[in-house]
């Protein structure tokens, strides 16, 4: 799995960080998403997929061909 | 309850798409149909009053998913065909084009319809902003606009005013509150917003209700206030609230009261569920019927509904959250802010327009607001006292 974030779309809600703190963080200065792990381990795939689906700004995409 | 063979989701915006995605993510393998009133594939609404209106983003940019991600959902998309009726007992939906769709489970996610002023229809230059087409039409009119009046001093009105001002348009904001969002944020933060808008050149004409429109030769010329004044305008946006889009549920046998009334599992009747702006459901923790008009609720409630359809017997009990961007201010709100709450600044500095405010009622934290401090505000979410969030509050 590969994870992509669009910092320009990110609204700083932090929904992804609450779901998957090992994969996502927020910048201290403006709350914009920071990708900590672009190729998370398999155990994290379901929660990362959920984070992408529920991101209120549609700023996370996941590709499965990895 | 057995897992249904076919699920029909009515409404192809954030909540509808999220319901479909969550069903698939949770392993649902039956048939799925997503019915949408608008011709567009699912798109995101929050940027409409900001990046789309300003022209910073092309309309394609607000698509919630790329075509390959949508086809991966193995879902039949029926777009541009509004639902016009529901037979709840048979779980059958009738559409404007004459389709008759029946499923074992139906998800109602039809969202909101903007409120309008009397005489607004047929008057050129008067807009609402709910859909992508609305945003593009308003944008086109703003290019040659000499004075925009925004009717509405809530989130949407304030965002439109800020965006239009950023485009160089002369803007007046009208509404009944003493300051933008005063009923939501209370005097301190609403006062700061008023300051910000004034500083950036928005003319605030607040504290008087808008009673109607003035027009000449079929075109708007102004906005009438309860004080008797008329604010001149050649373009007007009416953004003073919206009502759940439930007229198509008339005669369905379902209880409609400020939205589709649901139990704590977001279920309106056997096999009928609701998610997003349209759902008026029983929040078990608060023991109150609640309807939330915000973006995160749309997706999260749809996830809960997907779970309920698949037999997950859990109440949906979210803490409300929304954000708003106006000029360079990005405000994040967790929980509920009562206008009469006791407000304390716990981080940052109001003078620097970067702070976190805690809202308390009877000593209990009901809400957290971050002004340009999103992360710091979110980290205080756990201080919210869930049961006090709505005490004596709005329903």
UniProtKB/TrEMBL annotation, chain A:
Its cofactor is [3Fe-4S] cluster. Residues 1-29 form the 4Fe-4S ferredoxin-type domain. The keyword Transport applies. InterPro entries: 3Fe4S_ferredoxin (IPR001080), 4Fe4S_Fe-S-bd (IPR017896), Fe-S_cluster_ET (IPR051269). It holds the Pfam family Fer4_13. Gene3D superfamilies: 3.30.70.20. It comes from the Bacteria. Keywords: 3Fe-4S, Electron transport, Iron, Iron-sulfur, Metal-binding, Transport. GO terms for molecular function: 3 iron, 4 sulfur cluster binding; electron transfer activity; iron ion binding. Transmembrane segments: none annotated. Ferredoxins are iron-sulfur proteins that transfer electrons in a wide variety of metabolic reactions. PANTHER family: FERREDOXIN (PTHR36923:SF3). This is Ferredoxin.
UniProtKB/TrEMBL annotation, chain B:
GO terms for cellular component: cytoplasm. It comes from Planosporangium mesophilum. Keywords: FAD, Flavoprotein, Oxidoreductase. Gene3D superfamilies: 3.30.390.30, FAD/NAD(P)-binding domain. The gene is hcaD_1. GO terms for molecular function: oxidoreductase activity, acting on NAD(P)H. This is Pyridine nucleotide-disulfide oxidoreductase. Its cofactor is FAD. The keyword S-adenosyl-L-methionine does not apply. Residues 6-302 form the FAD/NAD(P)-binding domain. Residues 321-382 form the Reductase C-terminal domain.
């Amino acid at each position: 799995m590969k994870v992509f974030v669009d910092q320009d779309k990110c609204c700083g809600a932090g929904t992804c960080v609450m779901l998957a703190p090992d994969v996502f963080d927020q910048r201290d200065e403006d709350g914009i998403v920071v990708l900590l792990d672009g190729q998370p381990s398999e155990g994290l795939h379901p929660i990362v997929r959920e984070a992408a689906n529920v991101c209120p700004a549609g700023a996370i995409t996941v590709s499965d061909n990895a | 309850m057995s897992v249904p063979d076919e699920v029909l989701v009515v409404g192809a915006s954030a909540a509808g798409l999220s319901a479909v995605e969550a069903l698939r993510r949770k392993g649902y393998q039956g048939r799925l149909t997503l019915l949408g009133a608008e011709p567009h594939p699912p798109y995101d609404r929050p940027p409409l009053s900001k990046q789309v209106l300003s022209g910073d983003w092309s309309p394609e940019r607000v698509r919630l998913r790329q075509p390959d991600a949508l086809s991966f959902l193995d879902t039949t998309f029926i777009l541009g065909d509004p639902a016009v009726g529901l037979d709840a007992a048979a779980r059958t939906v009738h559409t404007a084009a004459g389709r008759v769709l029946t499923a074992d489970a139906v998800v109602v996610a039809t969202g909101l319809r903007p409120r309008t002023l009397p005489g607004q229809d047929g008057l050129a230059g008067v807009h609402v902003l709910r859909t992508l087409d609305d945003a593009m039409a308003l944008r086109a009119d703003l290019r040659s606009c000499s004075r925009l009046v925004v009717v509405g001093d809530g989130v949407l009105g304030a965002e439109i005013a800020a965006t239009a001002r950023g485009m160089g348009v002369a803007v007046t904001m009208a509404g009944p509150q003493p300051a933008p969002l005063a009923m939501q944020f209370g005097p301190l933060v609403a006062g700061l917003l008023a300051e910000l808008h004034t500083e950036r050149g928005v003319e605030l004409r607040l504290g008087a209700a808008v009673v109607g429109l003035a027009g000449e030769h079929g075109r708007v010329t102004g906005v009438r206030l309860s004080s008797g004044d008329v604010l001149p305008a050649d373009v007007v946006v009416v953004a003073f609230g919206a009502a759940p889009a439930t007229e198509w549920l008339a005669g369905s046998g379902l209880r409609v009261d400020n939205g589709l009334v649901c139990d704590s599992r977001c279920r309106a009747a056997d096999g009928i569920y609701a998610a997003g702006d349209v759902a008026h459901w029983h929040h078990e923790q608060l023991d109150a019927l609640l309807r939330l008009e915000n973006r995160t609720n749309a997706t999260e409630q749809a996830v809960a509904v997907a779970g309920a359809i698949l037999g997950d017997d859990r109440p949906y009990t979210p803490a409300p959250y929304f954000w708003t961007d106006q000029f360079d201010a990005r405000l994040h709100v967790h929980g509920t802010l009562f206008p009469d709450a006791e407000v304390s600044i716990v981080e940052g500095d109001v003078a620097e327009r970067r702070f976190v405010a805690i809202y308390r009622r009877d000593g209990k934290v009901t809400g957290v607001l971050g002004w340009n401090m999103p992360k710091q505000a979110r980290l205080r979410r756990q201080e919210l006292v869930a049961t006090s969030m709505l005490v004596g509050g709005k329903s």
